[in-house]
Amino acid sequence: MPGPSACVAAFLLASTVALTGCGDDKQTPAQTPSSSTKQVPSPAADLMSPSLKCLVEGSPWHADVDQLMRETADRLSNGMLKDLSHSGTSTLTVDADLHVRYVQDTLTKAHMDLPAGQSFDTEVTTKGTVTGSWTDEDGKLVPGDGWTSTLKSVQSMSGGGQTTTADMTDMIGLSKKPVTYTCAKDNLKLTMQGSKFTIPFT
């Protein structure tokens, strides 16, 4: 079983890229919703379920990754996590045709005190854009073809006198797995199929 430091490192990486994925097919700009302003209701919105209409009209959504991390990281680290910080933004925009645009530019840092006076530090930098489309199937958001991603995460870990760095570019996320969701007023929660974590948005 991996130690607590490995668990927290894996969690920090997973939490910063939980919604991301890569694809090979390109997409035209017309298929990509803008992330700058709230969506304007379209005729298609009248045919949507209340939750789906909430998802579209509430866009753009801003991921509350800090809340997610603080609710779970301390449990995973067995109480040894002493410092955790997160900066930057993660924005999800969905239009009335369920075209998706996810933009992330974040930095996450964590420090742990380990047994025998040792310590462990990890830092994850994630930046890029993911675009694609969903279909609504019985309340699940199912990814279609044609996803594209420029997203990249770099993880740096140091402890026990050693430092390692890892690049992550082929990350499984919203482009490959169905998503369940709840949406009400200004709150959205997404859960990837098979994931134990729910990502909150506001």
Structure, explained:
- The chain is α+β, with helices and mostly antiparallel strands and 202 residues long.
- The protein has one domain (4-201).
- The chain has three helices and eleven strands.
- It has helices at 4-16, 50-57, 65-76, and strands spanning 61-62, 81-94, 99-113, 119-137, 140-143, 148-149, 152-159, 162-168, 179-184, 187-192, 199-201.
- Strands 1, 2, 3, 4, 5, 6, 7, 8, 9, 10 and 11 form an eleven-stranded antiparallel beta sheet that branches.
- Strand 2 (81-94) and strand 3 (99-113) form a beta hairpin.
- The protein is elongated.
- It starts with a helix and ends with a strand.
- Mean pLDDT is 76; it is low at 20-32.
Structural key phrases:
202 residues; alpha+beta; 11-stranded antiparallel sheet; 43% strand; elongated
Q: Would you tell me the overall average pLDDT? A: 76
- Radius of gyration over all CA atoms, rounded: 18 Å
What portion of the residues fall into strands of 2 or more residues?
35-45%
- Give the N-terminus to C-terminus distance in angstroms: 36 Å
Task: State the total count of DSSP E strands.
Answer: 11
What is the H-and-E element order? HHEHEEEEEEEEEE
Alpha-beta classification: alpha+beta
Overall domain count: 1
Overall body shape: elongated
Unreliable runs, pLDDT <50, ≥5 residues? 20-32
Number of helices: 3
Biggest β-sheet description: 11 strands, antiparallel
Binned, the helix content reads: 10-25%
